[in-house]
Amino acid sequence: MDQAPGSPQGPRDQGPQDAQSLPTCYRHPDRETGIRCTRCERPICPECMVSASVGFQCPECVRNGSGTGHSPTASQPRTLAGGTITADPRLVTKVLIGINLAFFLVQLSVGDRFTDRFELIGQAAFSAYGPIEGVAEGQWYRLLTAMFLHGSYIHIMFNMLSLWWIGGPLEAALGRARYIALYVVSGLAGSALSYLLAAPNQPSLGASGAIFGLFGATAVLMRRLNYDMRPVIALLAINLVFTFSPGFNIAWQAHIGGLVGGVVMGYAMVHAPRERRALIQYGVCALVLAAVVIATLVRTVQLT
Ligand SMILES: [Zn+2]
Ligand SMILES: [Zn+2]
């Protein structure tokens, strides 16, 4: 069957697919997908979806003939969110894992003195090494640095596995710049909600806020692509059960802050209209960041 590139049939118009009979990406046979290239009609996964003038095309079709379409501006291939397509679609995820592991090694070798200095603490408390100051005393950097620190081997292992598993495909689908914005702002949203709601002398740390943000954005993306949502919902439910289990002493505020931020920004990334797409995507990230700043200022005024 021949499909003209300008035909109106895009992924948007496809109904929900039967979950049992989803085809797999022709370039990645281990990945199921509900989306097909609008030109050759072969199934493609998010990593292989190039944003075309109508719907998505596969990398081969884009390489072979972007000149025959009616849109001369579509010469540079883009990810489904409008990002640039790169040779290593998971590079940022690898770098983020590297940064987290490096910080963990420093924590192990320097010890609690280092962790006390950079984890999230709302207001001055006493540690074994004397008085320390918190965000309320002006150490804003703790909101950022806390998201690269971890409390135990299990903690960092769990977070880095999630980061690789969820973050890798998401980075490929969004492109690097949008992915970094999502990761950092989600992490900050988690820190800000912790600062706002948790006891000020309760230290918290970990990449979980950022990773819950990736979760939220993944859920939005999978919904948009008519994927079977059950695996991601099950995974999220397990994580939320852990979050609210009294035995685990987990900062639920960071998880919920990251998750909400990730859903909001993920929605903008995936659903922004093609015209002024980048403006809307980064504009929404800026709005979430503004909420982070406001929450931080409100809490600081409360505490001082
Ligand atoms: Zn194709
Ligand atoms: Zn693929």
Break the fold down into its secondary structure elements and pairings.
Elements: E1 50-51, E2 56-57, H1 59-65, H2 91-110, H3 112-118, E3 125-127, E4 130-132, H4 141-145, H5 153-174, H6 176-197, H7 208-224, H8 230-244, H9 252-271, H10 277-303
Antiparallel strand pairs: 1-2, 3-4
Helix pairs in contact: 2-3, 2-5, 5-6, 5-7, 6-7, 6-9, 6-10, 7-9, 9-10
This protein binds zinc ion (2 copies).
Name of the CATH class of the largest domain? Mainly Alpha
What are the bound molecules? zinc ion
The helix-strand sequence is EEHHHEEHHHHHHH
- The helix fraction, in percent, is 40-55%
The gist of it:
The chain is mainly α. The protein has helices at about 60-65, 90-110, 110-120, 140-145, 155-175, 175-195, 210-225, 230-245, 250-270, 275-304; strands spanning about 50, 55, 125, 130. The model is unreliable at about 1-20 and about 70-75 (pLDDT under 50).
Task: Explain what you see.
It is a single chain. With 304 residues, the chain is mainly α. The chain folds into two domains: 11-75, no CATH class; 91-303, Rhomboid-like fold, CATH 1.20.1540.10. The protein contains ten helices and four strands; from the N terminus they run E-E-H-H-H-E-E-H-H-H-H-H-H-H. The protein has helices spanning 59-65, 91-110, 112-118, 141-145, 153-174, 176-197, 208-224, 230-244, 252-271, 277-303; strands at residues 50-51, 56-57, 125-127, 130-132. The strands form two sheets. A two-stranded antiparallel sheet has the order 1-2. It has a two-stranded antiparallel ribbon with strand order 3-4. Strand 3 and strand 4 (130-132) form a beta hairpin. The chain is elongated, with a radius of gyration of 21 Å. Mean pLDDT is 85; it is low at 1-19 and 69-74. The site of one zinc ion has 8 residues, from helix 1.
